[in-house]
Amino acid sequence: MPIDRDEVARKLAQIPVEEHLVVRRTAIAAGITRHLVTAMLKEGRLHRSLTRFKPALTAQKKHMRVEHVLSYIDDESHEFESMENVVHIDEKWFNQDTNKRTFMLLDEELPPQRNRKSKNFIRRPCFSLPWRDRDTTSIASADGTARSASGH
């Protein structure tokens, strides 16, 4: 007996989109078999959609970023100042959530909006490996603060 694909689509539409990540999880949440979910994908009634984080910066944070960049421009020559004595710290992020996430969606469904205020709200360790190019090195951070480290 053939299974009505419209009925399967209605069952899939009733579960939250966040449950549409992988075939097994989608099938369990909808109460159908994995074969039906795979068949719906092959038939084109269900499609995969890739989502990424979208920045949700406030106007104040955007302004702070522009001010930080402008602080490195020489007022007289209107060129960037030499940054040979500035150490840029590279951060390694171990995110709680991945940037890319694939959802299986019906034609009328939209992928969920995945915003983060900033990456400061994602738990992560940070490390740096500064080096000395001159006698004095200043370490700058993204918020515009700087400190000097004297070399030997």
The counted number of beta strands is 7
Q: Please tell me how large the radius of gyration is.
A: 25 Å
Distance between the termini: 82 Å
Q: SSE string, helix = H, strand = E?
A: HHHEEHEEEEE
Total of DSSP H or I helical runs spanning 4+ residues: 4
How does this structure look, described?
With 152 residues, the chain is α/β, with parallel strands linked by helices. The chain has one domain. The chain contains four helices and seven strands, in the order H-H-H-E-E-H-E-E-E-E-E. A three-stranded mixed β-sheet has the order 3-6-7, with no helix packed on it. Strands 1-4 form a two-stranded antiparallel ribbon. Strands 2-5 form a two-stranded parallel sheet. A hairpin with a 5-residue loop joins strand 6 and strand 7. Helix 1 packs across helix 2 and helix 2 (23-30) packs across helix 3. The longest helix is centred in the middle third of the chain and has 12 residues, at 59-70. InterPro entries: RNaseH_sf. It comes from Phytophthora nicotianae P1569. GO terms for molecular function: nucleic acid binding. This is Transposase Tc1-like domain-containing protein.
